[in-house]
Amino acid sequence: MKDTEKLEKIVSLAKRRGFIFPGSEIYGGLSGIYDYGPMGVELRHNIKQYFWDKFIAEREDVYGMSAAILMPARVWEASGHTELFTDPLVECKICHERARADQPEAIAEHENTHKKEKEKMGWSLPSVFNLLVETKLGASEATASQVYLRGEITQGVHVNFKNVLDSMHPKLPFGIGQIGKAFRNEITPRDFLFRQREFEQMELQYYIKPDEKTGTETFEYWKNFAFNWYLGLGFKKESLRLRQHAPDERAHYAKDAWDIEYNTPFGGWLEAWGIHHRGDWDLKRHSEYSKEDLSYFDEETKERYIPWDIECSGGVDRAVLFVLLEAYSEDELGGESRIFLKLNPKIAPIKVAVFPLLKNKPDLVAKAKEIYTTLKKKIPQMMFDDNGNIGKRYRRQDEIGTPWCVTIDFDTLGEKPELKDTVTVRDRDTGKQERKNISELSEYFKAML
Ligand code: ATP
Fold this sequence. Notes:
Helices cover 31% and strands 29% of the residues.
């Protein structure tokens, strides 16, 4: 049976501590839609920044871009999504709720809700359900054109392949990466951020010369690169694995496909990230449908060809969810039980929190503010907190995963002369405190980050 206890704890912490809220909650919410709060948006930003740095900014062979969410229907006909981006849908004969026929767990879970009417339980024959989210653009009904909210961010890159070639003149192999929202009318959004209807993706399309050996080597390279990148978010090696898709599991465009999977407590090994060998599928189809020539001229060999594409495609929100699942910890500290997020400091929403020991001592507050303001210039993700007693403040920071808390006390002000201008630095994971000079704080935290 599915162990959802940890997931429920995370949903509750995410709301309590300002990470993630149900979308439009005061109006009753919207299934499969979530809003990010002040802490969640920083965590998500850090994950995206880490992607941008490693896959794009630090490389000389990859360009970044940002394509629009709305795209004409023709794009999705070319990419095969209008025809093939479907899930098998079945409807419960008792309550007409819909489910995906290929998700035995969802089917069993639903049948369980009708235990008392077992003999009536049954499903309709599966029908094909397209996941693209459709809308209309244009001022009048008559002239409005049908457009889609992109079902994957991939196509925005392929349709700009020629623009990037003509403006940047790159030589193969080269990549184009982007981060952005995608929309899917999932039949059964579930498991918090795992299956949403609006979510964000981070992707790289890496174009290569069409050649089996180059294809295999490049695929291997990006498969390992993506896996190591994912580990770098702070996962234990045993929490992640690489799994090859069986031929009947692959998307319509894929020559080969592997997933990075995370071992979730609620559903076992689930997809975090996909590495796909898309061959020339996308560029060829867009050449055909748009009538634009999307081939590449190889100056060296004087050949003209349609490049192949090796894709790395990851969900931002799934990374947020898996990072939270991995980091969630409970232990005992000073005889009290506590919850803390053992986040990698690199992606923690707040790196350092600064507290005056007491709120009603102006000298302490002024010194704490001064330290906070100076440090914040070097480390922007900081928090000042003088709310409630110090123990409560530590607990609050533990729950949002802040790696270090700095406390300004009477010794900082010189009550014990030998400790003047020192503060305590508390470590999130051990709860241990160390005294440090104010002057060394900035270097110390920067070195740890
Ligand atoms: P699944 O099999 O779980 O539906 P998929 O194979 O359709 O996923 P891709 O099309 O390869 O997924 O999308 C790339 C990535 O986007 C996935 O690895 C996942 O992290 C993310 N993703 C896909 N669908 C969703 C969703 N409904 N909610 C959140 N993230 C998603």
